Amino acid sequence: MPILLLLFVNISQPKAQTAYFWSEQKRIPDYPDFTQEPPFMIADQNNTVHAFNAQPLHADEEDSPKAIFYRQWTREGGWTNPNDIIYDTEGGSLDILSVTSDPSGMVYLIFQQGFFNIYFTSADLANAGNSPSWSLPVLIAAQATHVGIGFGGVAAISADNIGNLVVIYSGSEFGKGLYSVTSSDQGNNWSNPYPVYLTGDETIVITDPALYLGQAGNFHAVWTTYLDDGSAGAGFYSRLDPNAKVWSEPTALDIPGIRTPDIIEYDGKLIVSYYHANVNGNWWRLSTDGGNSWSLPSQVSSAHVGTNGRVSFVVDSKNNLYAFFGERINDLNHGMWQCLWTGYSWTAPEPVVKGPQVRDAIGGDGFDPRAARAIVSNGNLILVTWTTDGFAGENGVWYSYKQVDAPELPAVALEEPTTIAQSNPTVPAESTTSQLPIATATHVLNISGESPRFAPNPQLPIIIGIVPVLLILLGTILIYYVRQSRPS
Description:
The protein is mainly beta and 488 residues long. Helices cover 5% and strands 40% of the residues. It has a single domain, classed as Neuraminidase. It contains one helix and 33 strands. Strands 2, 3, 4, 5, 6 and 32 form a six-stranded mixed sheet that branches. Strand 4 and strand 5 (78-79) form a beta hairpin. The radius of gyration is 24 Å and the shape is globular. The model is unreliable at 1-18 and 418-464 (pLDDT under 50).
């Protein structure tokens, strides 16, 4: 009797959607073998996904600097060729940090140049692949944590529909901590860096910040810390009211041991996810009051383990909330997994793709999915991208897609702007990319008009509470000695 061996199995998700299957996993063309993060993606309303990443400008040169690249994906046409849109004419490397968009059709991108500088640039999404359409990049932060091993995520950007932009990043202007810069005019003017939270310890570094625009207009932030011994530290949540220009006091997500947090607002409730070292797996918590209080931590799946990047949330046109993540059940069941939110918990994970872990050289046939990044196109087509864990051997970026049981939204073509902003005129004529300028943003005063409100360290409330007790104790001792010294 013949035996059929399936190394990688694509299985449909819950029973209500048995007619729909995940496509065969494929590698996105023209990505370097040594790639640790999938692209940042934006879906328009015309069945197209726009993808942004950083990779070597010259693939055939070993020491080539990195530039910012752009691709498109459609179900029918697949992936377009990569187009470099921003590079440094002086030979420096650029690392992409985060991308977002707003309802007006603008896309906003932040990247790191050198070791500590964060730049901002923007373009109309319809012309995102056209280098001259990008605005002159401006420096918005000069003391950010450098992107590197252990610090793959150091910044995030989000936008609302009235011109507010918020960037959070790991920095050191006033000590190691999480900082924010904001703009209320789509990036034309920026605030000075503002300390949302300071670690109080120069050996503790902020990492993996994530940012989400809530339904009430508040910006919700989560982040974690990286200790000097390489272990995961504490993680926190805070929110920004863009009208009051005030960040809430940071709230601890859990005891130390946290990596790769993420957050989403769904049906008026906040859901935060994070990896925790205590069980080597992913957890979630729920807030029904805008982040003031949280439910007890619960595991996304007690059967899945591994630190394989953050959970990626998406919502389809039927208002179904999905969570995607890379983890393993055992050595024979590594994979990219999906869960569906039931209203009070997550369904048992179903595989997008799964199979035994395969270890190989970089660029080989390694298999161990990590770093999920998903997006929904026109309401009912989910595209999931991921990379391969380094222990298995990095081998570019992979993807799979699936039509889910939800209505397809009507296609709406992107409107191209009537004018296109010109790139730096000193760009060589043969280049199709924007030169990185030496320019700084037009800064405004502190976002609140007051002195920076330093977020306290977690130990500060304890210290404050101890002080009165010590004073009472000292007073009691003093009275005792005074009474003892009186003549009888």
